[in-house]
Write a structure and sequence with these properties.
heterodimer, A: Helix Hairpins, Heat Shock Protein 90, 3 domains, five-stranded antiparallel sheet, five-stranded mixed sheet, 8 helices, 12 strands, 15% strand, B: alpha/beta, Rossmann fold, Arc Repressor Mutant, subunit A, elongated
């Protein structure tokens, strides 16, 4: 809920509505008070004018009978006289020790710590009237009226809150509809969401979601294809194992049984190797950064790989060795185990595709901008049209009768990629076969090097 | 029964070859799709076991080519592709059966026998002719109620004659069914097998068509 749109809208709307509402209420309150004051002032002016006109029409002896009928709450005090010097009469509540005002119009004074507002009016014969009103009473009245006017506005607060809440809820309904729809989808359903009847604000989100679905679909399709291929590739050695086991069970002679069991073991070895390669590939697939990166001496890796592959080379009587020109000090930053897998796979491939009595030579040397690992064989090479595909998973060069699982070079190219290196293949081995070059650019070298024709990089 | 096996996996191919030989099948084995057509048009196989993922020409194309050329030989697809589409496509392309790797050897043998039987218009699993009963699956032959002990080759010769009852088989045709590629054919062996079959069963069972070959005369109902 921390980043809820609902909450965000609620807060923004509430704050702005409350602010606007407070400003309106405050203005109304202030304006009401001002108007009440004006009204009271007008009352005072009217009272003064009434008395003045009475002074005009009545003889001075009747002046004491002039009593201004006042509403009790208005509490207007007054006094008047016929001339500047003469005082006619005064209401009892008029502060009596008050000096008469010189100027007519409104003014204010303080009497016994009470503030008063006074209005003085004169006529042209010297008659005068002073109307006074306690400021406290005036304020009280204004306050009462203003408060009464403001009162109903308070009622609007919960109403407004409810309406804001409901509006947000209704306003966000399409979003929730989409959310519910997406939420209730099957994981396998990656069909695009229809955005025809969704609000234009949500449409970009849906478009982005649909694009994501497409990408996921493609990546899942790739994954599915891989699993499919993997299962398919496992089936063949399993079928061979099962068939040879059946043959062994049905064998009528000891020799036949031993032959079948030997084939059975061979099949099991193949299945084990395939599973092993698949596991390596699966792990490499989810590895984007390299763990355990150290400075690895490539020559040490070469020696390990040559020792590892020696039995296979010996079986085919292939001369496997490290070139005398190898730079024993060449190192690259990386993971030794992965680099040994890379070298092992390329070397084992070279041995597999080289005819008996051939040679496979490995070497490491430094070039201007890169450390280069080279595997040369005396095999038939690879047809040009296969260059682009040999790094594909489960791809085997057509027509070759060799029984590799088609993952070796995929793994090698993936390890190279993780190490920032790339693999070049060329039918240009000095020994007449395929030359595989793994190029580790030096850290300070320019990243892009021009490639010659016929060379292949698995990952541009 | 002579079977053509098209399988590029050498280890599995060896297994199938050995396993089918145990059941008395004669196997010729090709490693790519190109050779399927050549082999099938030069030898009258009883059935073909066809892998789909073959180099040079995939199994499906080889199968279509075979059917387009009018070859009606029973084909059993043996593949790791198990999707419904693959199976439907395989059967629609003209295969007669479809098996998925890994498989039971016994089932492969039985299905091949069934395919061959069906292609010869035989509905029973056991072949009968006169007093002779031959079971291709158990490889046991009865003459009446007595079990007859036959050698592998004698059995195969009898089976071929019974499968083609009423049809004359030349000596060369019989040799084709009995010997695979590269197996050395000793001269007069067919005559020797026929001799022993007549002796172990009864002489009138197999009739010689002079200068042509042998036939199991159609039974008169």
């Amino acid at each position: 809920m921390k980043h809820s749109l609902h909450r965000r809208l609620l807060i923004i709307l509430s704050v702005s509505v409350v602010a606007a509402w407070l400003a309106t209420a405050f203005f109304t309150y202030w304006d009401t008070k001002r108007q009440i004051n004006t009204m009271l002032d007008e009352g005072m002016v009217q009272s003064a004018n009434l008395i003045l006109s009475l002074l005009d029409h009545l003889p001075p002896e009747d002046w004491k009978n002039i009593i201004l009928k006042r509403r009790p709450d208005q509490m207007v005090a007054y006094r008047f006289g016929g001339s500047e010097t003469q005082e006619g009469a005064a209401s009892p509540d008029m502060p009596d020790h008050l000096e008469r005002r010189r100027n007519d119009g409104f003014s204010s004074f303080t009497n016994r710590a009470e503030k008063w507002r006074l209005y003085k009016a004169v006529n042209d014969r010297g008659g005068w009237v002073e109307i006074a009103q306690r400021q406290k009473v005036r304020d009280q009245m204004a306050e009462n009226v203003a408060t009464h006017i403001i009162h109903p506005v308070w009622l609007a607060v919960p109403l407004l809150a409810a309406m804001i809440w409901l509006s947000i809820h209704w306003g966000l309904t399409p979003l929730q509809t989409v959310a519910r729809y997406v939420g209730s989808r099957e994981a396998s359903n990656l069909q695009p969401i229809k955005s025809d009847d969704t609000p234009s604000e949500i449409r970009p989100l849906i478009t982005a979601l649909n694009q994501l679905f497409q990408r996921i679909d493609r990546s899942m399709e790739k994954e599915r294809q891989f699993t499919d291929d993997a299962a398919h590739e496992l089936r063949t050695p399993l079928a061979a194992i099962k068939t040879h086991a059946d043959v062994a069970l049905q064998a009528s002679s000891k020799e036949e049984r031993i032959r079948a069991v030997q084939s059975l073991v061979e099949g099991a070895d193949r299945a084990i190797r395939l599973v092993h390669q698949l596991l390596i590939l699966a792990r490499l697939d989810h590895q984007t950064t390299m763990a355990d990166q150290t400075s690895v001496n490539l020559n040490d890796c070469l020696i390990d790989s040559v020792i590892e592959e020696m039995p296979n080379a010996t079986t085919k009587n292939i001369d496997l060795g490290i070139s005398g020109k190898t730079d024993g000090t060449a190192t690259v930053e990386g993971n030794g185990d992965l680099l040994r897998i890379l070298i092992g796979n390329i070397v084992s491939n070279a041995i597999r595709y080289t005819a008996p009595e051939g040679t496979v030579t490995v070497a490491v040397h430094l070039e201007a901008t890169a450390t280069v690992l080279e595997v040369n064989d005396s095999g038939p090479g690879i047809p040009e049209e296969s260059f682009s595909r040999v790094f594909d998973r489960f791809y085997r060069v057509e027509g070759s009768s060799e029984q590799g699982c088609g993952l070796g070079l995929s793994i090698a190219s993936r390890v190279a990629e993780i190490h920032g290196a790339h693999i070049q293949l060329e039918n240009a081995s000095p020994t007449g076969g395929l030359q595989a070059r793994v190029i580790f650019p030096m850290p300070d070298a320019l990243p892009s090097q021009p490639l010659k024709n016929g060379q292949t990089t698995p990952h541009p | 029964m002579r079977i053509l096996l098209a399988e590029d996996d050498i280890l599995l191919g060896k297994g199938i070859e050995a396993g089918l030989a145990q059941a008395g099948f004669t196997i010729d084995w090709v490693l790519n799709g190109d050779d399927v057509h050549h082999a099938a048009s030069s030898v009258p196989y009883d059935a073909i076991i066809l892998d789909l993922g073959l180099p040079k020409m995939d199994g499906m194309t080889a199968l279509r080519q075979l059917r387009a050329g009018g070859n009606r030989i029973p084909v059993l697809i043996l593949t790791a592709r198990d999707s419904l589409n693959d199976r439907v496509d395989g059967l629609d392309a003209g295969s007669d059966d479809y098996m998925i790797k890994p498989f039971e050897l016994a089932e492969l043998q039985a299905r091949l026998r069934a395919l061959v039987r069906r292609s010869k218009g035989i509905t029973e699993a056991v072949l009968r002719h006169g007093a002779v009963t031959l079971s291709p699956s158990t490889r046991i032959v009865y003459n009446g109620d007595t079990e007859v002990d036959l050698s592998e080759r004698e059995f195969t010769t009898l089976q071929e004659l019974m499968l083609n009852a009423g049809r004359v088989l030349s000596k060369a045709q019989l040799e084709d069914k009995i010997y695979g590629w590269g197996e050395e054919i000793e001269s007069n062996t067919i005559e020797v097998y026929i001799h022993y079959l007549r002796k172990k069963l009864y002489p009138e069972l197999i009739r010689t068509v002079r200068g042509v070959g042998y036939v199991l005369p159609k039974e008169v109902q």
